[in-house]
Amino acid sequence: MTATKRKLAIVTGGGSGIGLAIAEKFVEQGIEVVIAGRNQERLDAAQQKLGALCHAIACDVTDLAAIPGFVQGVIDRYGPVDILVNNAGANMKKDFTEVTDEDFQQIILTNLTAVFAMSREVVKNMLQQQAGCIIHISSMAAQYGIPKVIAYSASKSAIDGMTRAMAVELSPKGIRVNAIAPGFIYSDMTAKALDSDPERKAKVFGRTPMGTMGQPADIGEAAWFLASDAAKFVTGVVLPVDGGNSIGF
Q1: What positions does the domain Ketoreductase occupy (predicted)?
Q2: pLDDT for 8-20, tens place per residue?
Q3: What is the mean pLDDT of the chain?
């Protein structure tokens, strides 16, 4: 094996939005990227856009039993995993009393249990190399209270705690673990949601000191920083990329 082996990253939910922006930044930096998600068509379109350094593999992270096979398949085909970005996630907006046990469990499964299971399998491989970088995607919902997203808030608050616990246990073994907490990031969906709710839109921009929404590429840049040697002494942090929203008044 040569010392110049290209780094390999897995990005879950990599077919669109923030996941795609992270994959795009990694490819731009010469990192080989496996994008995973449920929608093969969307993944294939993203792969076409990103080119030869990108590989698209369908994987439903909520199918916990399939995760070990997925990770092993990536390793068998492309070699050891250097970077894991746990970006796949789901949200649900409902009044507190309307959220069923099934609703709650489904969000926890997608946003937390699947992140744990994917990380565990990748870490088994990273331990053999005594090196690696894991990045979780957290949320403003873990920084302060947002109504009608109780399950999502619970899952993302747990991600922050898991980030710190994983960092303390794994960093002595060469594996850095960090999280990014995006603020309001532009997408067709968020733009539509805010445009249809002027009061919420005013609130969002009113408490964001920089006065704008972020772009998916802003999260891509943060992920690249955390994955790069520039962050070699950074572990266990939850990095807000939010234009100041989490400290705004």
Answers
A1: 7-183
A2: 999 999 999 999 9
A3: 95
Rg over alpha carbons for the chain, rounded to the nearest Å, is 18
CB-CB contact of 182 with 247 (8 Å): no
Q: Is there a catalytic annotation at residue 144?
A: no
**Other Cβ atoms within 10 Å of 200 Cβ, number:** 12
CA 107 to CA 153: how far, in whole Å?
10
User: What is the pLDDT averaged over residues 80-100?
Assistant: 97
- Residue 3: per-residue pLDDT: 53
Helices (H), 51-132: 67-78, 101-108, 114-129
* Rounded Cα–Cα distance for residues 238 and 159 (Å): 10
* CATH, domain range 8-186+217-240: 3.40.50.720
The CB density around residue 145, as the number of other CB atoms within 10 Å, is: 8
The domain ranges of the chain are 8-186+217-240
Segment 112-156, tens digit of pLDDT = 999 999 999 999 999 999 999 999 999 999 999 999 999 999 999
